[in-house]
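Interim report to the steering committee. The following record documents the input for ATP synthase subunit b (170 residues).
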Amino acid sequence: MTPLIFASEGFGLNLNIFETNIINLAVVVFGLYKFLPGFLGKILEKRRTTILSDLKEAEERLAQAQDSLSQAKDDLSSAKQKADKIRNDCKVRAEAIRLESEKRTVEEMARIKQGAASDLSAEAARVTSQLRKEAAELAIEKALAMLPKKLDSNTQDNFLKQSIKNIGDN
């Protein structure tokens, strides 16, 4: 057994190369140094490439999303402008329709009033004519009723002569 340097009851520094496995450790470190960079380097390079491509793809999707957002904002703005224009056009059209409706209503009222006035005039003329006719008929009836009493033969002769004379003068 090799002596332990600076040993004190169970703990110390062992300088025996074979007992401490320094050679085994050196072989493992040399193997790792020789073979690990190629193997681990390929894995790390592949991982780095994957991460870079994922980042690039994410940036492209971000750019597309920003373009889509910008396009959507433009479309929304355009749609709002069209909606405002349509709303204003509808207001103007509604006002024009309202004014036209009022105008037609006033014209219709004037036509109805004119029709009523002409109907009233026609009815008044008809009633007046009817009253004149009835008055004339009553006057003729009274005259016919009174005529035999007042008309004697002498008056009849004078009346006939006067009528013949009037016919001859015409």
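The two ends are 187 Å apart (CA to CA). The committee is asked to note this result when reviewing the revised timeline.
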